Amino acid sequence: FTIFKERKDIDLFAIYKPARIVSGDLFDFVFLEKDNLVFTIGDVSGKGLSAAFFMSGAQTILKSNARLKTPGIIVEKVNNELYTVNQHQFFLTLFCGVLNLKTGTLIYCNAAHTSTLILSSNGELTELEQSHGMPLGLYPNRTYEESKIKLKPGDTIILYSDGAVSYTHLTLPTSDLV
Fold it and tell me: H or E segment at 65?
């Protein structure tokens, strides 16, 4: 389904198809201001209701920390909070990005999740394969690095897990790109 029908600078599509009736896959996004989009995709270890409950808690923690605007710090905070409530030893792989729609700058942190892909408008595919740390929820007080990439008008970000797929197509205003 298309998420932002009223916006002209971004198209976001998401597909969710769990392995069972419920699962531990998550995809979420939130605008911090008009131009900054925080988005995440992740996968909880395990399947079924228990994994779904852990994912639900993780998604709530992610939303409450999105205001921090820095992917590495968001991931560190989420990791510590998940660790304190993780009686069943679940873990969460997570990709967290902050995209500035005005400049095309994507700052991201990948905590052992699958690679994110960037499909350029000319058809070139770039894999963001660097992992910035371990999955979340297993060990406290871990630090997570982050990376930065500059996107161009027409680029598409492709995020996926085994139960969720998201395509984010950018139509950035070329005159505002730095």
Answer: helix 48-65
Q: Strand 116-119 relative to strand 36-44: parallel, antiparallel, unpaired?
A: unpaired
pLDDT for 30-61, tens place per residue?
A: 888 888 999 999 999 887 788 888 899 999 99
Residues 86, 78 contacting (CB under 8 angstroms):
no
Cβ–Cβ < 8 Å for 89, 51: no
Q: Which tokens is 37 given? A: 């989009």
d(CA 24, CA 164): 10
Q: What is the pTM of this model?
A: 0.88
DSSP code, position 152? -
Q: For residues 160 and 118, what is the distance between their CA atoms, to the nearest angstrom?
A: 12
* Cα–Cα dist 153/171, whole Å: 5
At residue 172 the predicted structure's pLDDT band, cuts being 50, 70 and 90, is: low
Cα 45 from Cα 115, distance rounded (Å): 17
